[in-house]
């Protein structure tokens, strides 16, 4: 076996949170293609997410999106999750699907709308108290489409004020996690467009505020692993939203577009002490517009695991020595050696040794779960991202 | 007056076709913000488009989108248009909002679906025969999201076959106009991603097939006016879809993001004989997600007109002499002189001299039309892009 | 006259520092095209820079680059500058043209090379003490070409240590200005690639450390005026390196590629209190690879002035009202009105009223200076950027 | 062994041409870092290139660059190559390092300069007749830095005329291969910026003119394998210049930045019949600015070989079936399976079975060649890219 047992121990600590919304329909502005069997309520989303964990052992928690995942009783939802072997995780707010937010939410010039957006986040914290969630993740669609449309500086100040009001309400062990995104749905400026802005804003709030890095939210060519390194160094990397992209925020299966980039990102997480560190949450945030959802998520967590295994294989001592000697080709070669190592067989064996299927994709296909939900889930409407 | 009368004569020949769908609701994958007063049927769209022409004298025709603009009687629609002072123009097909097209339309591996897509285009040609339209514009959402998902080469061959079947049905004075787009809604490969592909495909069809250049459909940094030059040189520039972008296919008001680029594009149109040339159609294709639709279109056609006026002001003789002498700063300076000239006052005066309002934006606002449609158009549903 | 006198008063306060190296030969990796008459020593560079100021009144100071501009006596150089009507400004360090710096300078893993790079900066501060310069500007070529080549985190820590050592030596009224750049000459990672990194590093140093924003040093699509706003808001915008780009760090004449972007940047400077504020230095940093150098610089400072005039014309009250009312088209229209206003005639008149030539480009051409230097400056070698 | 013998047979047909200039010094506009032992004449370049072939069996020919590789006797050079086990390949012209070409070469408005550039190419063809080379590869630095600097359309027409004159001189079995490049060293427009332009130009010449695709010469985000597919389909893909990039035309070791992209490109070559097809030449074109040259080239050809092996492992039948059934995840999975397979051990065994070293990198290091050239090659000057 190529993978040392110490590495397997590290791999056994890996936990990747799934987004409840990945199991619902999604699409582009041109069309949301509906799929048979998609969940019609948060309980069914949790059930689907639990399938991913059942077959991979990698996804023990599920992130919620409010209001999509509002339920009358969060203790019922929590119990449902636990009955299915998973738990509830991060709570994500939503300030982009209400008509009031057309020109902004927490940055809006109208105090009424700002307060509405703040209140929504306070409600999210109330839900977190019921679900036992630690993290409130905030991604804002706020921005403008035309130069002059609004005053960017005032919006930034209002952003600070609104976040402060939300931050105040956090419990002792809760965190505010601020996501940034290069563009979309705003097309001239975005109020939190880059890691620097997110970092400056969360630093102004306090220790319980950290940054969320979504791997699809950068300008073309951006060296994402550099940002990972920097945020870890600055003590402000709170979580990842993993996904993959060729162009913009394509939200493809993680690792699909550039597996080597995924490897480099995880390599830097490991280097900076962010791996198997509860302060740095691994999460998926992606769409499965044309492929089936549950296997799409299984494929994604496996990709993260495989690249983590490769990253953990890097010979750190040899690498340090090659770097110190200025041997460019040797240092690069040590990293590439790890990347090119095929860890899949070892991982399959190890999986079996832990009572998991060697091939989670096949196991899911053979389980009959997909056919069952496609037959059973007829009628009802789905509340979600692409709704 | 800065603008010579010969230039004004040229400007009086300008005609910009409006897209019927610009008057309906639109949005991003995150949210379509509805607006009061949006049209509920193709007749109301035509009425709105006619307002743009009424106040600017620049937009005498309206492009249709099938099936969004299907009506029981196209002669009724045609008469409605003429009664409002405009005519029906290009017919746009739509092969991206039917579940059958999830993995492709005219490029699909399933012959049934390909035939369905071909038949849709043949229906469009039937409609063109009723509306008197010359151009069938084809933009395809076809593509894949993941490497290996489908065979790109076979899709390209099937694209040729399908387009050939459509081309065959064209009347003597009709044209097939093939649009290209860098990406979206497909995120790995797009079947017509660049001008080269569109050019190769239409060249294989014949003289009645030409290329449509949408100004928002290129990779970052692309020199669009170069493509304009090249397509004119090759005799294959059929039409423009004008809009503006900072990032991807943002579909902002034309000229909003980079007015100098718009100027350079029109400069190259003029240089290459594409201005006031019926073979090169000027069209808008944009969204007004957050601003009002009719004034958004008025602003857009005025921007095109203003930049055309500037482009026509370039001193061609002086420019040629500076270029021939290799005087980089002088040659660039002559072009910049034209761009920096404020033509707005002259255009306002000239507009008035032709019985048009000096300030079309204010004239529309004062006309009461917007208030009227917001009051009257209640109930009904809108069929369209963002529906 | 369109420009109000209060605006002219503001314009009279504008001062743009010229880079001494813009007057020397420059080029690409493929070829440095030599030009007749380029300076052969720092004194000649100052003389050329003084011509720009003489004809425009806009460029009263000249930035130096060490070691390119090393002279036996800085008091002689200072007197030469003053005799020519200008003064010496920012001192730029250079850690990219010594063989020792192949794998890094202040971030190098070898303490000897780091100390050499630190010592170079200390020497620069010594020179600043002689020239009376306030700012030490640091742009670092440091980075790597291949993943794994060096440890990015350690480099970042070493960067902090080295900058701290340099910072310690600053005089009471001196500043350390840290420039960032997306890429080049390193092609995998750059040690100061973005404003966030520069901001984090200078914040860790203290109040006398600030950020330099070079307008050509960003990823494609980056909203630069947003960064201007943010750095002003955070109190860390120290200076600008103005230039223009279509693709990468093209270093074209400022305003040449996207005058509207230049306008928006200056608009945000004005909005944030950075205009006519000595803490925010305006500087050019560009190449004139194929055009003549002195008129290239004249064209550049005029472009900055013209866009500043336009930016100052924005009707702030009307803009605020339109923004507050959520009128997207009106707010954008107010900004565009200012941009489209042709201020060149007014500026020419005003220039004449101040004893400056109405048309600085023509005045320089007519002055005979260019012919003189082309004849006189024969022999000698030029030390500089493209050397 | 994972690799079937039929695949090994295919791999044994692989031949990658090396660029003579990769062995000389190179760099960026900021600095060319000289390396010990670099060749001082074309003979020494050939010797170095032969080392790559000796250790890998992959690089049997060497491309020349004129005038860098001009020698008194090409038959001597040819014999020297043959004595070292390689042969002379493609001849590359150079129209970017002469002062006359500052504003263009074959597109220049001055007929004298155009003729000079044409004559240079005719001289190249004369040399090809002596070296026995088949391909004349033309990469043009032609373009402009500022809008208006020159007339793009006239330049395109002059490009056609000049290429026609060159094409006329080709021998019966010779080819003209026209390379395109997105930008650099021109920063506004480039005369052959994209595959469409190259395709249109070579199509107008005739069957002996084809396109060269350099993998580093595209806009950000471009799907390069699509272009490979399209050019193969159109019968116009003449050759590859392989290298790698994170940002612009970085010219890194092939496969270094995105090995998965290299895999996808080769996959499409195989699919389109371009593999082991003499009409599609594989060539490297890259720099080794900071790493040693010979091992940099060895690493590069090995990367091409490894990715070719992976691409040949794709189960075509299964892939076709998955594609036909519309199973997105399965089809993608089949491609990824091949990519993730570690072929290095098999290739090492196979190499040994053919009398080649299992590990060419180590074998070269152990050979003493590098030490020998570093000691022996002292004095002399190097003519080349970074000179």
From TrEMBL, chains A, B, C, D:
Gene Ontology BP annotations: L-lyxose metabolic process; rhamnose catabolic process
- The reply on keyword Metal-binding is yes
Report the Pfam families cross-referenced here: RhaA
**Is-annotated flag, keyword Isomerase?**
yes
Annotated keywords? Cytoplasm, Isomerase, Manganese, Metal-binding, Rhamnose metabolism
In terms of SUPFAM superfamilies, this protein maps to: Xylose isomerase-like
The record's section on InterPro entries has:
L-rhamnose_isomerase, Rhamnose_iso-rel, Rhamnose_isomerase, Xyl_isomerase-like_sf
Enzyme Commission number(s): 5.3.1.14
Instruction: Enumerate the GO terms in the molecular function aspect.
Output: L-rhamnose isomerase activity; manganese ion binding
Which superkingdom?
Bacteria
Q: Which top EC class applies here? A: isomerase
Q: Which NCBIfam families match?
A: RhaI_grampos (TIGR02635)
The cross-references to PANTHER family, in alphabetical order and at most eight, read: L-RHAMNOSE ISOMERASE
How is this protein named in the record?
Answer: L-rhamnose isomerase
Q: Which organism is it from?
A: Humibacter ginsenosidimutans
